[in-house]
Amino acid sequence: MIKILFVCHGNICRSTMAESVMTHLVKQQKLENSFYISSAATSREEIGNPPHYGTVSKLREVRVPLVPHRAVQMTAQDYACYDYLIGMDTANIRNMTRIAGGDSDLKIYKLLTFAGSGRDVADPWYTGDFDATYADVSEGCSSLLRHILENDRDKL
Q1: Domain count of the chain?
Q2: Could you say which of 14, 89, 136, 141 is catalytic?
């Protein structure tokens, strides 16, 4: 089984969207029994809150089922539990590495790295542009799934 944790600052916009998109992609491939997918925040600001209405609205528009979710914070134990810890931007990566106490197993990645880009996923908290965020998340999740199917087939 492959375990993936998507992480952003508050766990109500980007990481929740990525969790839902990746879950949907995995189900389309009929691989849901081979994956455990979740999401978390680097901060405590939104703990317990549901996904942002913009994320909910965008996912509904593109017919991606929203994974039931309440914001939680990433912990140091998450590093041991997950195969992939996927941050949405450079600040997330820095904070994830701090929370994990380093990245000795090289499991922390920025999402768009899998799409061949060093870009950050657009943050709709500041821009209000959930279309751009969805485009980034969709591209990143599709590329991540392709990477896993090509490189970690033995774990499925």
Answers
A1: 1
A2: 14
